Amino acid sequence: MIWKFLNEYRVWYSLYVIMSAFYFLMFYLYRLPLSYFANSLVLNLTFLILITIWQYIRFRRKLLILHNFVYVEELRSLTAPSEKSYQELITKLKDKEGEELLAAKTKTEELQNLIKMWSHQMKVPLSALSLMAQTNKLEGNKVEQQLIRLQNYLDNLLTYMKFSQNKDDFRFEDLSVSSLMRQLIKKYRVSFLAKDLSVTIQGEWQLKTDRKWLSFALSQVLDNAIKYSKNNGTIAINIEDKRITLSDQGIGILDEDLPRIFEEGFTGYNGHQHQKATGLGLYMTKQVLENLNLAIKINSQVDKGTDVIIFKK
């Protein structure tokens, strides 16, 4: 502790020694009585020692407070201007740390709730597969349909994890949007057949983008169209230069839900009513498209259908 004190005030003590040396030199050169200098030096040293003891006690108390304090209020006894500035700085740092801890805790709780919700949803296709196995009714189309649902849930979860950690792996290339949509339609063919849905696709758009992430975004839109379409309905895909429009004849979206459909975790009336939504599909779709320099817009009328438009910014 003493060495810390001397180290902090070493400039002042060094200055005192230098000044004393100068005064001694002046007395010596002008042949002044050195006894006067000695008496003055003793008096100054006495004051210096007393001030040093007082400063050391304050210094020691300050270090103990700084070392052991938990709350900023415990620093109120430190009243020097510089100490007040340090208190303000510590307060800001503690506030920021508290905000970061709260944000981290909230994010952890959200992730836990998300995983619980996803686990619950994944039980549905797993239960269906288990029932098929137990009753020896493993029909190919129905099994494939449940496997597609499982794959979509896992893809959504992994995508969300990547975005929540601010990671991406975009690789841009020239591709045919029409060809990509046809691949997705082929992937979901079992889901189309299960609801007797017909699909039309026309037009072309040569786009430089990331194949995997655009495929993810389009699959979310197509999956929603299938999910909320009525049996024997039609899904129309119109591709133009710098624009894709996917229209269905499904149950539609309430007007009051439309402004919030891209919010994280928002499911709306349809999601609650049909218990098919996690509230992250469209949120992640919008995030992915923004990273691809694309935008998305949705128009919808209840019981008439929904139009999803993806276009170049």
TrEMBL record:
InterPro entries: BphY/WalK/GraS-like (IPR050351), HATPase_C_sf (IPR036890), HATPase_dom (IPR003594), His_kinase_dom (IPR005467), HisK_dim/P_sf (IPR036097). Residues 117-313 form the Histidine kinase domain. It comes from Streptococcus chenjunshii. One of its GO terms (biological process) is cellular response to phosphate starvation. PANTHER family: HISTIDINE KINASE, PHOSPHATE REGULON SENSOR PROTEIN PHOR. GO terms for molecular function: phosphoprotein phosphatase activity; phosphorelay sensor kinase activity. Keywords: Cell membrane, Kinase, Membrane, Transferase, Transmembrane, Transmembrane helix, Two-component regulatory system. This is histidine kinase. It is an enzyme of class 2 (transferase). Its EC number is 2.7.13.3. It comes from the Bacteria. Gene3D superfamilies: Histidine kinase-like ATPase, C-terminal domain.
